[in-house]
Amino acid sequence: MADAAGDAAKGRSRMVVLVGSSSTGKTRACWEAVQPLADQGWALWHPFDPTRAEAALADLERVGPHTVLWLNETQHYLGGPQAGERIAAALHTLLTDPGREPVLILGTLWPEYASQYIALPHPGGPDPHSRARELLTGRTLTVPDTFDQNELLAAEALARDGDQLLADALTRAHTDGRLAQDLAGAPELLRRYQHAIPATRGLLEAAMDARRLGVGVHLPQTFLTDAAADYLTDHDWDQLTDDWAEAALSDLARPVHGKQAPLRRSAMRSPRRPPGSPTPGPEEGPMFRLADYLEQHGRATRRRLCPPASFWHAAHIHLIRPEDLNNLATAAEARFRKQWAHHLRHRAADAGHSRALFDLAVTRERAGDREGAESLYRQAADAGWPLARGSLVWMREQAGDWEGAEALYRQAADTGNPQVLANLAWMRKQAGDREGAESLYLQAADAGDPGALFDLASMREQAGDREGAEALYRQIADTGWPLALVSPVWMRERAGDWEGAEALYRQTADTGNPQVLANLAWMRERAGDREGAESLAQQAADAGDPGALTRLAQMRERAGDWESAESLYLQAADAGDPQVLAVLAEMREQAGDREGAESLAWQAADAGDPQVLAVLAEMREQAGDREGAESLYLQAADASDPGALTRLAQMRERAGDREGAESLAWQAADAGDPQVLAVLAEMREQAGDREGAESLYLQAADAGLDLHTSTIDRWPWGLDPDGSPTPPWH
Q1: For the chain, which end, N or C, has fewer CB atoms within 10 Å of the first or last residue's CB respectively?
Q2: Going along 121-175, which residue ranges are E strands?
Q3: What is the DSSP letter of 264?
Q4: What pTM does this model have?
Q5: What is d(CA 213, CA 222) in angstroms, rounded to the nearest whole number?
């Protein structure tokens, strides 16, 4: 942190986001780091009015040199599905604009938010945080939860010099090292929660559940008091007095250590609206904010629980912010509470939430209501949801309404998106209008879509115009895309013109592209010239493509030449392709060289591929070595492979250790493999244990884990909040 501030003082723009749990000193560390810049006259800007995201979007472009941009609780800026990506892009522009440097951007995040933004998307799935991931890569620092022994000794020295507050904290934190949390009042906050009377505890748990399921930091009093009802037993409910809520909220507002309160009154700013804006919704009344430490405690301890019926009812009645309603609808749907998801999503859509409108449109379309779906898609598009217009086009195409689809494409093309012109060209091609398609492809290319020329070249090739296709590929290559020459090579190969293909490969290789040398190596290998193939693959590796040797090794392996394949794999590993270590490890394991296999697997794990250890573990399990398999699975899990815990849980389940299997399954789910409980449930069901399977399915549903399609028939109408199947509803 000090290094970043020092670089900023020397004229270089920097960004650092501290990642750590609640009350570990992240904000204080940022504050201390900027004090030297304050002494030099730097400005400090904390965008927060009317909301943090809105303030950042409105004024980021105005940030000039010698500014500290303070993004405390960075999730409020990067977390939104649309605004977050726009803010991430604007921050990247700010950091890379020479005319605006130096600036220093400081932020803080809890680990769960950092993991969410940095995680790579599942193949084929959405990627809602691509710009945020790009922005945060290489710009985060982890703040540990605890002080190590040396740091505690240093703190003790300060305490001996007269810091009584620090001395008191050390008496409580000397065993676990959680000194920062103690100073921030965390132990007392936790004690207040754990020893609270039922009414007070119910309010806190309703607040915890609201925050972990996506409600904003400002919680309406009316929502909290109504939501708390089902958190109390019938006996406790009967003991309540008329003023129970006021008394409980007053008690929760009392601060600990003179700083934090478990649930404090929070003033919410009125949004600033220009004249003519829509009239704001009804006032929500007094608002409260849950202490950060208790919020994080709730996320950790209540993650497997589905809130009771009073929570969902209170949310539907009292919450009015579209984002809150849509987040809860998503949370309800993930937990198979379909009826509440439906009603909450309608509330969010009525409030103008673009994603809610889109999701309702999808539901209408699946139900066969094309007219209703189209109306909702249009509303979602007008509200700014990017996928809505594409869905409208898709509906028209599926119905054979090419004219309507083309009209929508042309509307979108007016926004200046060249990809839309290429899509329109594809429609023209499908309709048999090659001339119109060619004209549109050329317009798309002129508008900045080089892929349109590829599509046009492909269209010419399919029509038998090889000469015209090759001319286009060469034109693309002249614009700086050397790989474009590979396409005419493939045309020559498909036509059996190996000599012409090799000549083109060599022309392309002159551009310095190692991939072309690798392709040439394959041609040599197919022609039986192994020596020439290996020489070219080595040239490609030397030019920066270590995968060339890997692919050549795979060809040798398929031909049964194991010795030559292993030699090439080792060369590829030396050239910088760590993935081949996994292949070599498996080859060594199959040959009985367990020690060599494990050594290579660890090398692969150190190079960023921990799954190799789990592959070896599976091979040992199949060979009957359960003890060796379990050891390797655990090592793989320690090397950050969550799938290893899943496979170990399955192995324990097969061995009859159901308790151990279930414990590991939860660990795997927490580590990033949400389907594991459903997998175990299926195993129990196949073994005839329907009751055990049902229990696991319900636990997974309550936690919002991925149950894939196997449960659709199990609960066709969803679940009630108490976990019982919902009767048919409309």
Answers
A1: C
A2: 140-142
A3: E
A4: 0.67
A5: 18
